[in-house]
Amino acid sequence: MSKPPERKPAGRPVTDERGNQTWKADSKIDTALVRALGEDLSLESSANPAPSCDPYDRISAGPSAEDAAKRRTLDDMRRLSKKIKNTKYWKPDKE
């Protein structure tokens, strides 16, 4: 069996005429305390948004100039393949 709640909730859910659920508090709320807690809050977005952890949410700018310079051409790949086939123990060239 489940235990009864230790405290009575400070309000109850209420449905308005549009069907929206809201919470109606049974006690009066001190507005000065709420305003003091919300002084630094704002609806405006910050100048530096937090970076996203979603890897799919990033926009790729394409390969950079360095990456394009490092890319191998088809002729380079053919020469490398031929070199690998001709040597018994292939080691990459030190550049």
Write structural notes for this entry.
The protein is of the alpha+beta class and 95 residues long. It has a domain at 11-38. Helices cover 27% and strands 11% of the residues. The chain is built from 3 helices and 2 strands, in the order ββααα. The protein has helices at 31-37, 65-70, 74-86; strands spanning 11-15, 21-25. A two-stranded antiparallel sheet has the order 1-2. A hairpin with a 5-residue loop joins β1 (11-15) and β2 (21-25). The N and C termini lie far apart (74 Å). 0% of the residues are buried. The model has no long low-confidence stretch (mean pLDDT 77).
Could you write a compact summary of the structure shown?
The chain is an alpha+beta fold and 95 residues long. It has helices at 31-37, 65-70, 74-86; strands spanning 11-15, 21-25. A hairpin with a 5-residue loop joins β1 and β2.
**Helix-and-strand structural type:** alpha+beta
What proportion of the residues is helical, as a percent range? 25-40%
The number of helices is 3
Oligomer: single chain
Largest sheet: 2 strands, antiparallel
- Contiguous low-pLDDT stretches (5 residues minimum) are none
- End-to-end gap: 74 Å
Mean pLDDT: 77
**What integer value in Å does the Rg equal?**
33 Å
- How many strands appear in the DSSP assignment? 2
Beta-strand residue fraction: 5-15%
Shape: elongated
Order of helices and strands: EEHHH
**What strand line-up does the widest sheet have?**
1-2
